[in-house]
Specification:
CATH topology of the largest domain: Leucine-rich repeat, LRR (right-handed beta-alpha superhelix)
Structural class: alpha/beta
Largest sheet: 9 strands, parallel
CATH class of the largest domain: Alpha Beta
Order of helices and strands: HHHHHHHEHEHEHEHEHEHEHEHEH
Distance between the termini: 87 Å
CATH architecture of the largest domain: Alpha-Beta Horseshoe
Number of helices: 16
Helix content: 25-40%
Shape: elongated
């Protein structure tokens, strides 16, 4: 009897691939030279996507391969944490947004070619809805001085201080959120103050880029040392913005003059949420915001915590709320307020039915302020959150306020 011993002991006719499988394998191997994708059936596309290398050029895959397994593998290969729920459950959107953010964050003025961004924008335009830029690198040379006169000396300096968003934003027609911080991450011993601030030239270029962007709904410009002058400059470009609904200027250096400019923006009645916490807004600035708030028909949330409004600003806001039936959430924590502000807001709580949450924590309201709020909450049926921790309020008043809030929360849930 003749016997044949195969080189592979596991070989079997059953494992011989079919012609269609061999064809798909060949398509995968030659995909970069001759991409064949649209002519395939959905099952065949899935098979090709599972085998394609995540290292393929983006210029080839961005417009050709739809959302699915291929982009999931690209994301998981590049980043450890991949929460697709933050991107509308779209793996392709996650990859393109984070890739574009990375290019911007490592863009060095006058060193990186603008084409690195300009060539990428058309590939991403249909998927980028949010950009979260956590750092912006300054030029390699000496930074441009703010008070430098225009002329030959200016031309000798860098052409820009940080990445110019005017190059990009008009190429992203679906962008709805922009989060930017003018700072350098993990600079180590190379620390320089210029690494952690937005210049006037940056502010002007960003403002011009935002002015005509018709889909942007949220702007967050934080930890960038934005002072009064830069705040006024930015607001000038945002006054007639067609779509902006949320503005976050937290963790900056904005004072009363900047707050007046913000008040002017509030007066246009387009913002629904404003966050200016951790700045240097004092009483006059608080009055300016309050004046705009009294006639504002749109604002739903206002966060002014960690400023220095004092009772001057607190009382002004309380007076403004007597005629405002729109605001839902108000945060005035850590603002050097006392019983005078508590008395003003207690009058608001008696008659206002629109406010849902109020935070007065870390102020010195005292026993009398707590009693006033306690009396007000006995007449209020709409407030479902009231934080008066660390305010020197009497324990009995605090307990009563908490019970009243729980009662309102239970009745609103029914």
């Amino acid at each position: 009897m003749r016997r044949i011993i195969a080189e592979d002991p596991d070989w079997s006719l059953v494992t011989v691939p079919g012609l269609s499988s061999l064809c798909l394998q060949r398509i995968v191997q030659s995909f970069e030279e001759k991409p064949i994708y649209e002519a395939l059936t959905p099952p065949q596309r899935d098979a090709v996507e599972e085998r394609l290398s995540p290292s393929l050029p983006l210029r080839l895959t961005a417009k050709l391969i739809g959302d699915g397994a291929y982009w999931k593998r690209c994301c998981e290969r590049r980043w450890t944490l991949c929460d697709v729920s933050l991107y509308g459950r779209s793996w392709k959107r996650m990859f393109l947004e984070r890739h574009l953010e990375n290019v911007i964050e490592h863009f060095i003025p006058d060193v990186t070619e603008p084409s690195a961004v300009l060539e990428l924008a058309p590939l991403c335009e249909d998927y980028v809805k949010r950009l979260d830029v956590s750092q912006l690198l300054p030029p390699v040379g000496e930074p441009r001085k703010e008070d430098e006169d225009s002329g030959d000396e200016e031309r000798d300096g860098p052409s820009m201080d940080h990445f110019d968003f005017g190059l990009l934003l008009h190429l992203l027609p679906d962008l709805e959120e922009l989060h930017v911080a003018y700072r350098v991450n993990r600079c180590g011993m190379n620390f320089e103050r210029s690494m952690f601030e937005m210049t006037d030239r940056d502010c002007e270029s960003l403002g011009k880029a935002l002015e005509s962007h018709g889909t942007l709904k949220l702007l967050r410009l934080h930890q960038s040392r934005v002072d009064d002058r830069k705040c006024r400059m930015l607001v000038k470009y945002l006054l007639d913005h067609p779509s902006l609904k949320e503005l976050d200027l937290s963790h900056n250096l904005i004072g009363d003059e900047g707050a007046r400019a913000i008040g002017k923006l509030l007066g246009r009645g387009q913002l629904e949420a404003l966050r200016v916490h951790d700045n240097d807004v004092r009483g006059p600035g608080g009055r300016a915001v309050a004046h705009a708030l009294s006639g504002n028909p749109a604002l739903l949330s206002l966060n002014l915590r960690l400023n220095r409004l004092g009772d001057e600003g607190g009382e002004a806001i309380g007076k403004a709320l007597m005629g405002n039936d729109t605001l839902r959430h108000l945060h005035l924590g850590a603002n050097e307020m006392t019983r005078r502000t508590a008395l003003a807001l207690s009058e608001v709580l008696v008659q206002n039915t629109s406010l849902r949450s109020l935070n007065l924590s870390c102020n010195k309201l005292g026993v009398d302020g707590g009693k006033a709020l306690e009396d007000a909450m006995s007449h209020n049926s709409s407030l479902t959150q009231c934080d008066v921790r660390l305010t020197e309020v009497d324990e009995s008043s605090l307990a009563f306020i908490n019970r009243a809030v729980e009662r309102n929360r239970a009745s609103s849930a029914d």
